[in-house]
Specification:
Oligomer: heterodimer
Structural class of chain B: alpha+beta
Order of helices and strands of chain A: HHHHHHHEEHHHHHHHHHH
Strand content of chain B: 15-25%
Largest sheet of chain A: 2 strands, antiparallel
Distance between the termini of chain A: 26 Å
Helix content of chain A: 55-70%
Low-confidence stretches of chain B: 152-162, 246-252
Structural class of chain A: mainly alpha
Largest sheet of chain B: 5 strands, mixed
Shape of chain A: globular
Strand content of chain A: under 5%
Largest interface: A-B, 62 and 45 residues
CATH class of the largest domain in chain B: Alpha Beta
CATH superfamily of the largest domain in chain B: DD-peptidase/beta-lactamase superfamily
CATH architecture of the largest domain in chain B: 3-Layer(aba) Sandwich
Distance between the termini of chain B: 124 Å
Strand order of the largest sheet of chain B: 3-2-9-17-18
Number of strands of chain B: 32
Chain lengths: ~425, ~725
């Protein structure tokens, strides 16, 4: 470990030197590039010539990936604006202050930006050391919430710090699993195609975490960490056989559930998933209230939307429009065009995140970046599938848009980690 | 393959999957919802977002024919509250106790209502306007105290569409708790105030009619109801229309217990059945309560209009002998009877195998005598001369086969044979029975309209109750003038019918319908109901009389009928004709129909007494004598201190005026004799003997007129000269 830290610090010094020298010659010394030999190193070195030409101009400011930061800032501004637009009637009616949610979210956004920048300076290689510790913290948090009193709806999700700030145990778990799998995948990169190293540890961590999440319960998070685990394993290089086996098993289970009628039962149990517009009985109608009004909002938007601030569904029809369903109000106000533009911004973020990750100088950085950016992309997709009634309404927030201090801070922290990866990767590339 | 190469490739795959599959699916889903389903979703969204508040139009006023206000803006209010707005029990307690005291409701129940977490609880419907004022005060009080009211009084349904105008609407956006959204999103559509109606109904005539009809109901123990219509013969204006013992004008809002139970039972299923909503449970509780309230209001409204059933136009009856005037008109118009025609009555008449009885044995009769005798066999023979098809054609022409089209709701149709194939359907027996007004059922308004056509020169007029429509500023929007629909019989036939009908009242069956000073024509009717109302084993009757006056220039027709009189005499001539006479003797002078007295009548006309008090005895006596009165002087004084009857009283010429000349004499009393059973001359003689005056009323001219009642009972001690009204009548004759 100390070797890695050392090399990293040394590399940064080199980088600083070369930056100040303003465009030095492009020649590189292979030994400086990596102190830890990796397979395929030659291939990596072949590519940079092109990438440098394409991206070096944008890579200003101490190696921070500026496009990525700009996309984050854009999403943050748009997200705050839309969250304010969606929340002000609720804030007005319930809190007596239209700016209630905006004020708080802006404070967290500013703190988040600071956190992001600070974290970006922290060499991500430090996290190698903490991966096991953070996994331990995750388990502790998951157990702790089970002991703490339940929140609204009888779920055990939040760990409160005083009355004002709370954090979801699952936020820690998601980061812990990504970190652990990045750590494991980079450490045992040459043995990831074995069952013992490739599948077993990941499956063990996933199963134990999922079990604890099941007790909360927090189904959406189980879905997210499952998919994240699969992504991480896939990228880490496990055998496609296992992917195939896993895929077949999943399809088999779903088919079995479907054939025995369990799936329908489960769907009905899950707050009337997929049936928001059809009246069955009063209970179902009440349960699907939020989803239905979300659909009304989305449908009302049409192609061009009702205009910024013109949503009607946010006037106490769509409950908690500032939270998970904020994008429904976005769709209503900005229409399909606005929604697609915002999704393109997210896609750009994911793409840029992947580019940054692939340029990371080591495997740990690549896996960590891919894991974190996949998490964002996944969260966006799942959130919109929820508000459009293709997934059960189980509480998946929309990054940068949904109100919530702790999740915004977690998000900005993760962005900081990706930026930290970008610093090292840009050292390599510029 | 190197590990890094694999990682890179797999990452690119992952990126493709996330972006293409994940984001692609999301965008496709959004596109479907916003572009394909968008319209439907938006419609459903707007449905819940808009509140549509009606602005009530000012209701028009109903005036009687002389401009007297009959009904004004009868809006009904109800109170609802939105208990979800209450913050604490103190507010709930306060509201419950105040509402309980204002609306006279149970406070504990109200308190329960205030605890519901809904935005719509109906508190009370149909509140009085004073209560409404109190509620408005309470609302203000609540606003002052708690910043909001949560009690809403709403304008409820109104009873008369014609007057309501067009309600305006305010369409506003509302938020999820049904209050208005803060931003500008409303559309106002102004209300158009209702027009006012001027009726042809004359309130004075109406009250005269109701007074006499009520008396008739009591006198004759009428079991079902009495109906009276007074109509302008020439233009169809209805001057009065009364159904007595029907619905009570003073208490029109009474709903029967059964009806109330039905209204209370209105639930979700009712809403589905009556098309209020496809699925009530789809709605929020507030919306559902609103709908149920609306359904209840509509059901109640329907029940009320049912209760208000105007039997003069909505119930049918067998017209009986009154219809004979129509049959005879047909025959005269068709020329199937003439001066030489004779109709024999042997007490009964057999058509094919059916034997139809008559009330008497009338022998050989002219057609006039057939009507005067109200002879069924004669009318049957006349009917057979007319023939089935002709009879049917005239039946139609007289307007019996269609509704009269009177501008009132709820008019019924007749019940008779369908014209299609009438020849096959209607046998000669049917025709025979129809000839004297049985076998088919018509409404009273149809009968009187036909009677008008018989006497007004043959024109079928359009009965109507609205004379003018005024806008809210009182300008005439429309004058309702009705042209006769058609001429049914010729002027000459009509003239002959008038003569026959007048003679019928002067000398025959219609004698009790005679009104002194007016040339009245008419026909009595006693129709079989074929129903045993009181369960005494005998089918009961409808006694009716339809008369028109004056016969030289017909102006007003009046139909009186009593359904199931059970006091003994059920003949139209005995039950309905006297009531007709009482009504017309007051109505005709009021309506400025000029009286035409004959000599005999002139002697019986009441004269007004003058002011004799204060004069010397001799001057007073001279003055009274000059006025046409006899004088009795009481006391020893020289000056008249008092007189009886007092100044301005009506007594017949030759009546006695008592002049008092000292105090002692004023205490003198006489005893009222019995006049009942005596003729007019006898009554005058008796009155003179006893020192009282009589004012004569009823049928006076007939040779067999007998006093049937007197205004002051026999044996009462009264001052000398007191006026006692004695009513005369003749025995009812069979018709």
């Amino acid at each position: 470990m100390s070797t890695i830290e050392h090399t990293s610090a040394e590399r940064r010094r080199d980088y600083e030197r070369r930056r100040s020298a303003r465009r030095p010659d492009t020649s590189r010394t292979p030994d400086r590039r990596s102190s830890k030999p990796a397979r395929g190193q030659e291939k990596v070195s072949a590519a940079p010539e092109r990438t440098k030409i394409r991206f070096s101009l944008l890579s200003i400011g101490k190696g921070l990936d500026v496009p990525f930061v700009l996309i984050i800032l854009a999403l943050l501004v748009v997200g705050l604006t839309m969250m304010f637009s969606a929340s002000y009637p609720v804030a007005y009616y319930e809190m007596g202050d239209s700016y209630y949610y905006l004020k708080r979210q802006m404070i967290f956004a500013l703190i988040g930006l600071a956190v992001m920048l600070m974290i970006s300076y922290v060499d991500y290689h430090y996290y190698h050391r903490f991966s096991a510790l953070i996994l331990g913290v995750s388990y502790f948090a998951l157990l702790l919430v089970l002991i703490l009193p339940a929140q609204e709806g009888g779920v055990h999700r939040w760990i409160g710090i005083g009355d004002i700030f709370g954090v979801q145990a699952s936020e820690i778990s998601k980061f812990a699993i990504i970190l652990f799998l990045a750590h494991w995948g980079s450490r045992y990169y040459d043995r990831m195609d074995t069952f013992k190293f490739g599948i077993l540890p990941a499956a063990g961590v996933l199963a134990s975490t999922a079990f604890l999440l099941l007790l909360e319960p927090h189904y959406s998070c189980i879905v997210i960490i499952s998919v994240l685990t699969i992504i991480m394993l896939f990228v880490s290089g496990i055998k496609m056989k296992w992917m195939a086996i896993g895929g077949i098993a999943l399809v088999g289970i779903i088919l079995l559930l479907w054939m025995t009628g369990m799936l329908t039962y489960a769907m009905e149990r899950m707050d009337g998933w997929g049936q928001a517009l059809v009246y069955k009985d009063n209970d179902q109608w009440q349960q699907t209230w939020q989803t239905r009004n979300s659909l009304y909002a989305i449908g009302s938007g049409g192609l061009f939307g009702l205009g910024l601030g013109q949503s009607r569904q946010k006037y106490l029809y769509l409950p908690e429009p500032q939270n998970d369903f904020v994008f429904a109000i976005v769709c209503e106000e900005l229409g399909l065009i606005g929604a697609v533009l915002i999704l393109l911004l997210f896609a750009l973020l994911v793409w840029r995140g992947v580019v940054i990750s692939l340029r990371a100088r080591d495997r740990f950085g690549k896996l960590l970046g891919i894991g974190l950016i996949s998490h964002i992309g996944l969260q966006v997709i799942l959130n919109i599938l929820v508000i459009t009634d293709w997934l059960p309404n189980t509480g998946i927030s929309l990054p940068f848009f949904s109100y919530g201090g702790s999740s915004l801070l977690t998000l900005m922290f993760e962005m900081g980690v990706i930026l930290s990866v970008s610093r090292t990767s840009n050292v390599e590339k510029s | 393959m190197g590990a890094n190469q694999r990682l890179r490739r797999r990452t690119v795959w992952l990126l493709v999957i996330i972006l293409a599959l994940g984001f692609g699916a999301v965008i496709a889903r959004l596109g479907y919802l916003q572009l394909v389903q968008g319209e439907e979703l938006q419609r459903r969204a707007v449905e819940q977002q808009l509140s549509d508040t009606p602005i009530s139009a000012k209701r028009g006023t109903i005036y009687d024919t002389n401009g007297k206000v009959l009904a004004q803006s009868a809006s009904v209010w109800r109170v609802v509250m939105a208990p979800a707005y209450f913050d604490n029990d103190e507010q709930r307690q306060f509201v419950a106790s105040r509402l309980a005291s204002i609306l006279d409701l149970n406070e504990a129940e109200l308190l329960e209502d205030t605890k519901q977490n809904t935005y719509y609880v109906s508190v009370k419907r149909k509140i009085e306007s004073e209560q409404k004022e109190e509620i408005i005060k309470l609302q203000q009080e609540l606003r002052d105290k708690y910043g909001k009211s949560a009690i809403i009084s709403l304008l409820d349904y109104q009873y008369n569409d014609e007057l309501t105008g067009t309600p305006g609407r305010i369409v506003t956006a509302q938020n999820g708790i049904q209050t208005e959204m803060p931003f500008d999103y409303n559309q106002n559509i102004d209300a158009i105030d209702g027009n006012s109606l001027v009726l042809t109904i004359d309130e004075t005539v109406q009250s005269i009619v109701e007074k006499h009809m009520k008396q008739g109901i009591i006198d004759n123990d009428v079991h079902e109801r009495g109906v009276c219509i007074i109509m302008n013969v020439n233009n169809g204006e209805i001057k009065a229309m009364a159904t007595v013992n029907g619905f009570d004008l003073n208490d029109p809002y009474t709903i029967t217990k059964e009806q109330q139970e039905e209204i209370d039972a209105i639930d979700n299923e009712y809403l589905i059945e009556h098309g209020f909503t496809e699925d009530p449970s789809k709605l929020s509780k507030t919306e559902r309560n609103k709908l149920i309230d609306q359904a209840k209001a509509e059901a109640e409204s329907a029940d009320l209009s049912k209760n208000w059933r105007n039997k003069a136009i909505s119930d049918t009856y067998y017209p009986g002998s009154v219809f004979k005037m129509v049959t005879l008109s047909m025959a005269l118009q068709e020329g199937v009877v003439n001066e030489d025609s004779r109709f024999f009555c042997g007490g009964s008449y057999t058509v094919y195998n059916d034997e139809i009885h008559c009330t008497g044995v009338h022998g050989s009769q002219t057609y006039q005598q057939a009507l005067w005798n109200s002879c069924n066999p004669a009318l049957i023979q006349i009917g057979q001369l007319i023939g089935t098809e002709n009879f049917w054609n005239y039946y139609q022409a007289f307007g019996f086969s269609e509704k009269t089209g009177i501008d009132l709701p709820g008019e019924s149709s007749d019940q008779f044979f369908k014209y299609e194939g009438v020849e096959d359907n209607m046998s000669l027996v049917d025709l025979a029975v129809a000839s004297f007004g049985q076998n088919f059922a018509i409404t009273p308004i149809q009968m009187i309209t036909a009677a008008c056509a018989v006497t007004n020169g043959g024109y079928l007029v359009q009965p109507h109750v609205v004379k003018q429509i005024l806008d809210k500023d009182g300008n005439v929007v429309q004058n309702i003038s009705t042209k006769p629909k058609r001429q049914v019989i010729s002027e000459s036939v009509s003239k002959e019918m008038r003569e026959i009908l007048e003679e019928n009242v002067i000398s025959y069956g219609g004698k009790n319908g005679y009104v002194a000073g007016y040339r009245v024509g008419g026909k009595t009717g006693t129709s079989e109901k074929l129903i045993d109302v009181n369960g005494d084993g005998v089918d009961d009757y409808i006694a009716s009389f339809c008369g028109i006056a004056p016969m030289n220039n017909p102006q007003y027709a009046c139909l009186v009928f009593f359904d199931a009189p059970l006091a003994g005499n059920y003949y139209g001539s005995a039950v309905s004709a006297p009531v007709f006479a009482s009504i017309m003797s007051e109505v005709l002078p009021y309506l400025d129909v000029v009286a035409q007295y004959n000599d005999d009548e002139m002697s019986k006309i009441d004269t007004t007494t003058g002011a004799y008090t204060g004069m010397s005895v001799s001057d007073a006596t001279t003055s009274a004598n000059n006025d046409g009165f006899n004088v009795t002087v009481k006391g020893e004084g020289n000056t008249v201190l008092a007189q009886n009857p007092p100044t301005g009283a009506s007594i017949p010429m030759g009546g006695t005026v008592v002049l008092y000349t000292d105090q002692a004499s004023t205490t003198e009393k006489v005893t009222v004799p019995s006049f009942e059973g005596y003729g007019v001359n006898d009554a005058n003689y008796i009155a003179a003997q006893y020192g009282v005056n009589v004012s004569l009323a009823g049928q006076l001219s007939a040779s067999d007129s007998k006093a049937i009642s007197q205004s002051i009972p026999e044996g009462t001690e009264v001052a000398p000269g007191t006026v006692i009204t004695v009513t005369f009548s003749t025995e009812g004759t069979h018709d």
